[in-house]
Amino acid sequence: MGLELYLDLLSQPCRALYIFARSNNIPFEFKQVELMKGQQRTEEFRKVNVLMKVPALRDGSFTLAESIAILLYLARKFKTPDHWYPSDLQKRARVDEYLSWQHVNIRGKGSKLFLTKVLLPLLTGQPLPPEKLESVTEELNVVLKQFEEKFLQDKPFIAGSEVSLADLVALVELMQPVSAGYDLFEERPKLAEWRRRVEEAVGKQLFLEAHEGILNAKNLTADKIAPELLEHFKHQLLKQTSHN
After folding, report:
1. What string of pLDDT tens digits covers the 244 residues of the chain?
2. Which of 100, 125, 152, 205 ranks highest by number of CB atoms within 10 Å?
3. Which residues fall within 8 angstroms of residue 108, CB to CB, at 6 or more apart?
4. At what angle do helices 165-179 and 89-101 cross, to 10 degrees?
5. Are 8 and 35 in contact (CB under 8 A)?
6. C-alpha atoms less than 13 angstroms from C-alpha of 58 in its C-beta half-sphere
7. Closest CA to 111 of 57, 50, 175
8. CA distance 159 to 145
């Protein structure tokens, strides 16, 4: 049994893994797990990841959860080019620093905007109050400013002159609010240039392919979601988006 990656490309960490594996010619079998259909909750998938979340990896009898752990596993196992996770102590520390910071910041706030603007109105059938959208957008704007000033600064990439896992993880997260109709790159020329460099480094066609589904997320309708998940999603979303 070869390497299997269990992914849904609507998920940001899944897209990062897919792009990383494909751009480095890592051989793997793509195992589609459709979150909207609840496939992550099946007994079959629980054997791969008891946490019932994607992404997940199976390599022979070895299974692994958590996207950052999987990215590092692939980088080490397949000895990908050094720039992805540099051997230089301080450059690697820059990558680690961003990967440690991003979870509740770029990932947290970007996801919140997407969930609030796209999924919440879909599940509740209620239009989104403008002040709610304004509030979550401002939360994202705060961390975007921190990202530019602290992590990107005036460098081509987060760790310096070459693309790393930090850049890839950052950009796929930022595409989530973009897919919700918030073009955060429009008035941020430094971020827009960085985005162009990251896309070119991984391959623009591959990047677009990985984002095709999420960029059509605005066309999502409630009937695409498994009925037994509707109430679960609604409850989870209301809980997440109520914390301002």
Report:
1. 699 999 999 999 999 999 999 999 999 999 999 888 888 988 888 889 989 899 999 999 999 999 999 999 999 999 999 999 999 999 999 999 999 999 999 999 999 999 899 888 887 788 788 999 999 999 999 999 999 999 999 999 999 999 999 999 999 999 999 999 999 999 999 999 999 999 999 999 999 999 999 999 877 766 667 666 666 666 666 665 665 5
2. 152
3. none
4. 30
5. yes
6. 18
7. 175
8. 18
d(CA 170, CA 110): 10
**Beta 56-59 vs 29-32: how paired, if at all?**
unpaired
Tokens in use for 104?
A: 């509740």
The one-letter amino acid at 115: L
Which residue type, as a one-letter code, is found at position 215? L
